[in-house]
Design goal:
Largest sheet: 2 strands, parallel
Mean pLDDT: 91
Shape: globular
Low-confidence stretches: none
Order of helices and strands: HHEHEHHHH
Strand order of the largest sheet: 1-2
Helix content: 55-70%
Number of helices: 7
Number of strands: 2
Distance between the termini: 52 Å
Radius of gyration: 18 Å
């Protein structure tokens, strides 16, 4: 938090919490977010958990802008490095992350991306019929 305050002294943080909670706590957490009345909500736990959590709870939170940011907090905190500029421009930042943490990322990129590509192909085939 101190890194963000140094970069953006006018920043007002309405609240934050870790991503380790039970599913039964979702309603309570969404209500806490609603009461804090933030303008922006960043959700930084792993995929697809953050997307699922947002899909289920975003409306109850009543935040104008919600976004799953994954490992962005690690980058801001200095715990992870971003890819070199040329890799970012080429759309290869995911590959740089994979190289940094292959044990953690292999399933996401090999299985997840393959499944995603399969669904895209199937959708295109359906639309051509």
């Amino acid at each position: 938090m101190s890194i963000l305050k140094k970069r953006y002294p006018e920043l007002i943080v309405a609240g934050y919490r870790n991503g380790y909670f039970l599913e039964e706590e979702n309603v309570k957490i969404a209500e806490e977010i609603r009461r804090a009345k933030p303008d922006i909500l960043f959700v930084g736990f792993s995929s697809p958990k953050k997307e699922q959590w947002l899909a289920e709870n975003m409306n109850h939170c009543a935040v104008p802008f919600c976004m799953g940011v994954g490992g962005s907090f690690d980058v801001v905190a200095g715990a992870a490095k971003r890819a070199p500029g040329w890799m970012q421009r080429a759309g290869l930042e995911w590959f740089y992350r994979f190289i940094q943490e292959p044990r953690r990322m292999w399933r996401r990129y090999l299985i997840g991306n393959t499944t995603f590509i399969y669904y895209i192909i199937m959708e295109k085939v359906k639309r051509k019929r």
